[in-house]
Amino acid sequence: MLWFDCDYNKGCADEIMERISAMNDERYIGYGEDEICEKAAEKIRQAVGLPDAYVKFLVGGTQTNLVAITASLRLTEGVIAAKTGHIYVHECGAIEHAGHKVIDLPSHNGKLDPEEVAEYMKHFYADSTYPHMVKPAMVYISHPTEYGSLYTKDELKRLHEICETYKMKLYVDGARLGYALGAKNCDVTLKTLGEYTDMFYIGGTKMGALFGEALVIKDKTLLPDFFSIMKQSGAVLAKGWLLGAQFDVLFTDGLYEKIGRRAVELALTMKKGFIEKGYRTYMDSETNQQFFIIEKKKLPELEKNVSFSAWEDFDDDNKIVRFATSFATTSSDVEELLKLI
Amino acid sequence: MLWFDCDYNKGCADEIMERISAMNDERYIGYGEDEICEKAAEKIRQAVGLPDAYVKFLVGGTQTNLVAITASLRLTEGVIAAKTGHIYVHECGAIEHAGHKVIDLPSHNGKLDPEEVAEYMKHFYADSTYPHMVKPAMVYISHPTEYGSLYTKDELKRLHEICETYKMKLYVDGARLGYALGAKNCDVTLKTLGEYTDMFYIGGTKMGALFGEALVIKDKTLLPDFFSIMKQSGAVLAKGWLLGAQFDVLFTDGLYEKIGRRAVELALTMKKGFIEKGYRTYMDSETNQQFFIIEKKKLPELEKNVSFSAWEDFDDDNKIVRFATSFATTSSDVEELLKLI
Amino acid sequence: MLWFDCDYNKGCADEIMERISAMNDERYIGYGEDEICEKAAEKIRQAVGLPDAYVKFLVGGTQTNLVAITASLRLTEGVIAAKTGHIYVHECGAIEHAGHKVIDLPSHNGKLDPEEVAEYMKHFYADSTYPHMVKPAMVYISHPTEYGSLYTKDELKRLHEICETYKMKLYVDGARLGYALGAKNCDVTLKTLGEYTDMFYIGGTKMGALFGEALVIKDKTLLPDFFSIMKQSGAVLAKGWLLGAQFDVLFTDGLYEKIGRRAVELALTMKKGFIEKGYRTYMDSETNQQFFIIEKKKLPELEKNVSFSAWEDFDDDNKIVRFATSFATTSSDVEELLKLI
Amino acid sequence: MLWFDCDYNKGCADEIMERISAMNDERYIGYGEDEICEKAAEKIRQAVGLPDAYVKFLVGGTQTNLVAITASLRLTEGVIAAKTGHIYVHECGAIEHAGHKVIDLPSHNGKLDPEEVAEYMKHFYADSTYPHMVKPAMVYISHPTEYGSLYTKDELKRLHEICETYKMKLYVDGARLGYALGAKNCDVTLKTLGEYTDMFYIGGTKMGALFGEALVIKDKTLLPDFFSIMKQSGAVLAKGWLLGAQFDVLFTDGLYEKIGRRAVELALTMKKGFIEKGYRTYMDSETNQQFFIIEKKKLPELEKNVSFSAWEDFDDDNKIVRFATSFATTSSDVEELLKLI
User: Within chain B, what is the greatest distance between any pair of CA atoms?
Assistant: First the structure.
């Protein structure tokens, strides 16, 4: 079976497994207060160009979004997101459950249009009834988006500017951040995120870790009670060093970017192969997730040997299908796949 | 000054003030457990054709929506509403604050299109990732809507049918219900609501009461802990008989419908007058709220003598303006207004 | 029937009913933005000696506690209260439902002992695991308490001092505040509350209003989004002027204190009468609520003519019974009661 | 350094690390839907004697308590716990943050007294104001407790009986369950828990897993939306098979009990050693946590070589100190410790 269904279907990169095995005889202080977490945090602070940032490790993406966003909002504040944003669609209403509206704006291949955000805010404060409405206090974007698309540095800068104007925070869900960093034409670096956003997380789970996400909060004084908020949400891992160690490995010798680059190269090879065989892409992704339009009648045969994700119908006869590469994909996986299609 | 800004700018109908004055020397049991509340509830049960319904009186509309909706939903369930619905726009995220997503569908003059609800539900359960998504468990409509439009009996029936298919509750926000009942071509009666919905409230505040809304829950066993939930939300009025008495008056000798009918007649006279003077309506409302397109440059003069509500821009030169009649509007108010425009 | 069951079993003081009747033909701006609310707020600001305070009118006590407390706390913060405090016992978990722990300390006749609060805080921060615990950020007291007892000025001052030390807010639930102000030996005035607390509310519902509580927030910059928070909790009354008018009347010609004083005098006459007839008091209340120990076998006869509140058992043969006077109690009520016991 | 500070200061049992390493090349379906989770669940179902139980794996204890408890309660319901219970003290108000009061009853060496629960419930429903109060709908106990003490089968049975009488669920926090199962005089087995409780979790994190807790819900129809609730709380691990695999190992060849038994034996040897050297125990624990009274002046010297937990002061000169054994403790650790004291 060839596995292209998602980027979290295998344990972890070998380097990480070795590290976790090797440290199994050691003793550590719990709750992420250990020295390995601190070391990994320091590496991340350097990488993002924020020597004073507050860095915390959490177990998963929904959890990280939930804790980071709700810790940042006052009671009547909400967060703007694209209608396709993960927090809007696929986290079972975690943000709303925690008390905050997710204000949806149109999705353009998974992205928010900064000018539409600006327009929304202009109208919001122009409406004299706004004290009866949820106040937008944060903008959420995912990068890469759920559709594999990427923001440019200019777009990020513009969103930052709009957020400053309207006193909103800019938050980036980087569940697949490494696949953005590994994309050829992406001018958004870790330092760009450090410069133009208020908070973002560097995804581990989908980037070769067993689990784990690294949350970076630019202003370390922003959330003095953040540990307690994590604890209250059940988001503190007792053996926190397991998280620190994984990010320590990922941020050693550029492993994080290396994993991203490799997976993206394989994804582009795959895309090229599909196109050469006459398939259309549903949208032009430059990252590890590729969306093709495939005849429904072809799918059952393909499913026998390949695991992939069928998304919605494109039309009566065709489906949009996602093939994802990851840290675990090999060149031969892609070659075999291209033979099968 | 002529008051057409809204339908809650004056105390109450004279009949209600007389009643409240007259009963001021009496003593009652608190928290709505008195006999006047029971008497009013019984009148409402008769009027809606549900002799076994559970009827509770609350103070305001946002409060009623908040308590009724959140009492009905499980943790991961949400409520579908039109993007212009009051709970979506103008209640400061009360439903989300209480933990539940409001799932917005397009607004058609303030209304949900039943077929779009059906379509949404079909797609929802067709998506295999739906356990990661907020489950629609209720449909919220307002009748009349925030734009004065009305659902037909057939539309209500169809929504009811869809709700049955997908095990959702149908809830009607009747903040201005009397102005629907008083509309000429409205085939939705109190008994229709009793038949096709699961819960609805009969608005008092905007219909001539000092304050108060009567919530009707069809299945009295549905929410056995409803009193406690009200209490927990600060929604139990200590001197509950004040609510019961007002609804007792409104449901005596058809006062509720009478108020609605009169206000709608005045609204239609007003509409006719505006049209005769060459104004365009923004949308064709049959109820007490009328929306006209007025040149912006005319507004300052008008504002000197008339109180009205400027809504959004229609275009660069024109504004959408709402004029509302109510239990408090007189024929001479309308005549004078028509002279001024 | 003689009514001593509670202090909210009758509509309102005649002065208030006259005012509400008289203003029924006027038109006002909604949501408490009217000039009557502002006038009443100004009278209250003068009375409490805080010319810059933020004053808002809400409908009921649970609602006021809920909104004021939850608006003030961060996610992991809680509020200290006596185990007999209204928010701990009788508001159906409103504070917890809104996300915050009520931390109970022992009740001494309904009161917190300031030194026990100090002790709790000392231990809290001495425990190195405190980031895993709910952080006390507010102290809640009721004055008079649920048992009719009163704090002294010195106790209030001491609580204020402790709160300053540990960066906590001091909040006073004044549901029956007028009955404290009317007590003979109470050295806590409205100005004392203004000086030593951060927030408190002046109760109306139990003091002769139809409904309504006036919340006073010392630092008006503390909660810039307070109106929105009220709205979100369904706590904004559409016809807000009804609240303003009632407090305007209560704070005209000292009516509020007058009502309190009269009711307390009648309560003390009642207490004297009970004692002279050989009854024991359960605790020595100086306010409008009096608690007596009465043989269970005597109660059925008494219940035929008097409405009162049976509290818990004192022992197998005796019950603790509460008799409350109020704005509505007359001298002859008390005389007749004393004949019956 | 000798590590006796807690039972979660080392990665995992060797058997578990081997398994996780060995499976690192395999591919699995995400979110716990894989076959290893199902296999582990089935082993647990057999072990607890509930062939139809619903078993889910979560990452940590606070998370498990939070999700399990809040999924089970209606809006105005609360959970009874001992004042020393983990959910009451050390989870930063997670349950309250999710909207529910934790109703504290006295702690007897960490345990609830069943008769005090019965008494509380009797009084609760005898109080006619109970609809204004949080309704106890669940009883939470930890076994072993936070103080290492154990419930007897008879106590569990009695709690079960009381819960049935008052329609409450009985929930057991088994963070350290294996150390109870390994205690000599403990007559509560996994099957006892299956028989007398409604939900409980089998702790992994403190029992030799890297992380993970197995929640057992007796009635699988109770919480049909449990997966979604987990997701909403950020409690679904993407690579869920990591949890399943760990519990599969723990429930193979009796490893779980073996780990518990060994640690308890070492703890009892340690206790014996302390007593022989003249130390007093603070309370008589039969499990892996032992509490001794130690002179404060002795602690600095001891801290140089031993890691332990200083709890509260016993008196001015003495401290209560906890020494915990775990899956990671060796006989020589204990021997060396006893030499040092």
Answer: 63
Q: Are residues B101 and B241 in the same domain?
A: yes
Measured at the CA of B114, the angle between CA B108 and CA B116, to 5 degrees, comes to: 75
pLDDT of residue B221: 86
Query: Per residue in C302-336, is it b (16+ CB within 10 Å) or e — as a string?
Result: beeebbbbeeeebeeebbbbbbbbbbbbeeebbee
- Give the closest of C90, C92, C99 to D96, CB-based: C99
A63 CA to chain B: closest CA distance, Å? 13
Last residue of a domain, one of B204, B225, B250: B250
The verdict on A92 touching B (C-beta cutoff 8 Å) is yes
With an 8 Å Cβ cutoff, is A210 touching chain D?
Answer: yes
Closest CA to C12 of C210, C160, C197, C199: C210
B14 touches chain C (CB under 8 A): yes
Chain D residues within an 8 Å CB radius of C127: 312
Contact B228 D71 (CB under 8 A): no
pLDDT in tens, D72-130: 999 999 999 999 999 999 999 999 999 999 999 999 999 999 999 999 999 999 999 99
Asked if C118 reaches chain D (Cβ–Cβ under 8 Å), the answer is no
Give mean pLDDT, residues D183-189.
Answer: 95
What value does the mean pLDDT of chain A take? 97
Question: Could you tell me the residue range of the domain that residue A293 belongs to?
Answer: 2-7+255-340
C238 in A contact zone (CB under 8 Å): no
Task: Measure the CA–CA gap between C162 and C158, rounded to whole angstroms.
Answer: 6
Does C262 touch chain D if contact means CB atoms closer than 8 Å? Answer: no
CATH number at D300 reads 3.90.1150.10
Q: Is residue A210 domain-shared with residue A274, that is, in the same domain? A: no
Total beta-carbon pairs less than 8 A apart between chain A and chain D: 147
C296-321 pLDDT per residue, tens: 999 999 999 999 999 889 999 999 99
B12 and C24 Cβ atoms separated by less than 8 Å: yes
Do residue D75 and residue B99 have CB atoms under 8 angstroms apart?
A: no
Q: Give contacts of B23 with chain C, Cβ < 8 Å.
A: 11
Same domain, yes or no: B94 and B112: yes
Structural domains of chain A, count? 2
Asked whether the beta carbons of residue D97 and residue C76 sit closer than 8 angstroms, the reply is yes
Q: Which chains touch B (3 or more CB pairs under 8 A)?
A: A, C, D
pTM: 0.97
The pLDDT score that the predictor gives to residue C141 is: 98
In angstroms, how far apart are the furthest CA atoms of chain D? 63
Co-location of A149 and A95 in the same domain:
yes
- Residue D234 confidence class, pLDDT cut points 50, 70, 90: very high
Most B CBs within 10 Å, among A101, A102, A103, A135, to test the B interface: A101
The nearest CA of chain D is from the CA of B72 a distance in Å of 10
B33-45 b/e (C-beta count within 10 Å ≥ 16 → b): ebebbeebbebbb
Subunits with 3+ C-beta pairs closer than 8 A to C: A, B, D
Report the distance separating Cα C6 and Cα C22, nearest Å. 29
Q: What is the pLDDT of residues B283-312, one digit of tens each?
A: 989 999 999 999 999 999 999 999 999 988
What is the per-residue pLDDT for B62?
A: 98
D97 plus D207 within the same structural domain: yes
Q: What is the pLDDT of residues D21-73, one digit of tens each?
A: 999 999 999 999 999 999 999 999 999 999 999 999 999 999 999 999 999 99
Residues A47 and A180 in one domain: yes
Kindly state whether residues A187 and A213 are assigned to the same domain.
Answer: yes
- Residue C161 belongs to domain with CATH number: 3.40.640.10
Amino acid C283 reads M
Q: Which H helix or E strand runs over A164?
A: helix A153-165
D8 lies within 8 A of chain A by CB:
yes
Query: Which of D250, D269, D286 is the C-terminal boundary of a domain?
Result: D250
Does pLDDT of B234 surpass 90? yes
Chains that touch D (3 or more CB pairs under 8 A): A, B, C
Same structural domain, D51 and D156: yes
Residue A312: is its pLDDT beyond 90? no
The secondary structure element, H or E, covering residue D87 is helix D86-89
Q: Is B310 on the interface with C (CB under 8 A)?
A: no
